[in-house]
Amino acid sequence: RKVLVINGPNLSILGNRQTQIYGFETLQTIIQNLKIIAEKSDLILKDYQSNIEGNIVSFLNDEFLELLSKENVKKLTNLNSIEHNNIAGIIINPAAYTHTSVAIHDALEVFSKENIPIFEVHLSNIYAREEFRRNSFVSPIATGVISGLGSFGYTAALHRIIELA
Ligand code: DQA
């Protein structure tokens, strides 16, 4: 089974970006560490980063269609082995799109309807910053929201997905 880790705009420059807020760790380092944890639990970590809203939507749509086709095969053949291709959970830091994107909300909602756990992660505490960061379009459909724990937020979310898997 796999875990999707999705990161939105400007997280590509993590480690160099407002380090007093986001820290010195790069996204590559964060993903590498998550992969090690996932592998130990026999989960495949698939990561995706984009600065473009529509690309994140397309990535999620493709994953959803793949999931549906796997589910259909499973129903038709009754083969449990197909379950190994299922999505155990989604970790997403939508970054600035958190506060603006109905499209990402909609693209994620279909997974929550399939009872796939979704964790919204923010490195910083979005409630302790500018007013415009306080609203999230993703939180209402998330299983859990982690904000302000730095990169440990991703680790915590992954541990929770492993626990639920
Ligand atoms: C962020 C918080 C967002 O408000 C901001 O736009 C980001 C990163 C975080 O991880 O703290 O780009 O999602």
UniProtKB/TrEMBL annotation:
Under which pathway is this protein filed? Metabolic intermediate biosynthesis; chorismate biosynthesis; chorismate from D-erythrose 4-phosphate and phosphoenolpyruvate: step 3/7
Keywords attached to this Swiss-Prot or TrEMBL record, sorted alphabetically, are: Amino-acid biosynthesis, Aromatic amino acid biosynthesis, Lyase
What's the catalysed reaction? Answer: 3-dehydroquinate = 3-dehydroshikimate + H2O
Q: Which GO terms describe its biological process?
A: amino acid biosynthetic process; aromatic amino acid family biosynthetic process; chorismate biosynthetic process; quinate catabolic process
What residues sit in the active site? Y22, H122
Q: How is the subunit organization of this protein annotated in UniProt?
A: Homododecamer.
Q: What is this protein called?
A: 3-dehydroquinate dehydratase
The organism of origin for this protein:
Fluviispira sanaruensis
